[in-house]
Input
Amino acid sequence: MLYDCAIIGGGPAGLNAALVLGRARRKVLLFDDNGARGLVTRESHGFLTRDGIQPREFRRFAQEELGKYPSVSLVFEQVLHADRKGAVFALATNSGFTAASRTLILAAGFREVLPSIPGIREFYGRSLFNCPYCDGWELRDKPLVLVSDGPHLIGMTKLLYNWSRDLLLCTNGWSGLTARQVKAFEERGIRLQTQPISALTGEEGRLEDVVFQDGMRVRREGGFVKTQWVQSAPFGYRLGCRVNGHGGFLTDARGRTSVPGVFAAGDTAVSGPTQQIIAAAEGSRAAMGVNQLLTDEDLGW
Ligand SMILES: Cc1cc2nc3c(=O)[nH]c(=O)nc-3n(C[C@H](O)[C@H](O)[C@H](O)COP(=O)(O)OP(=O)(O)OC[C@H]3O[C@@H](n4cnc5c(N)ncnc54)[C@H](O)[C@@H]3O)c2cc1C
Output
């Protein structure tokens, strides 16, 4: 069967794209390998009517809703190939399943690389996060740590100051702050440590201490960390999609990438803040772009 659209990624972006395309009576194949970065967290916040939901629960609800639309099929496998073959896209998964589609939506999200600090994985998604809009409310007024460097450190410190005044900034060895910036921190009682962190310690995901190279321990109850983002899947690069200044695939107002027939939505097309509700909205927008393209092609007017 030739599908109207293949969607790579079953997070909020891909799921919402599938919903809109299913409702538009399009034949859709959605692939997901269940490796989203956001699954480390127990509660996801800031999505109207779903504030505090577990990301896995969110996906389960969405998958159930898609069950109403018979032209949408879900394949829980990893896509290994997505190549253009003439007028269609040819896809192949890790199990050898193959399919062909007229259009493609890239929605495979990002993989996150955490700073290499012993113990950090135990806390990430439990008491250490990357986005105060997602998790700042739960950590409000608590003693917090921010592990960051460069311009991100300054911007994030200003933001976090809205949620807690008890801040410990850790540059983990980076020392590029100006005297003016250091003074601004001191004036507001914000503590700064530039020496490397040797470990994070605590119990069952709850951060308790930041331990520094010289043995000093500072009590903290949670915090935020700057992470590096890399595209989860290589298909956008392989197909020749242009990239924007944030490392996301460049899209226009209909979710179209620079490659005809290829659309992108969610984290993979990041151009600013990333959240589930933003990803879902972009998935909806890309789906409408796909449907418009197919409609124009089919009717030829
Ligand atoms: C610790 C943490 C806390 C967060 N908290 C919040 C929060 O409170 N509120 C909020 O709104 N957002 C939160 N986020 C951000 C949110 O998770 C993302 O912005 C959102 O999930 C992006 O949706 P997406 O659909 O673009 O990508 P994802 O949700 O990442 O989904 C992409 C999917 O594509 C799949 N995939 C990748 N490659 C392939 C392949 N080759 N074949 C098949 N499938 C593939 C992945 O396995 C994944 O399931 C948090 C993130 C983290 C890391």
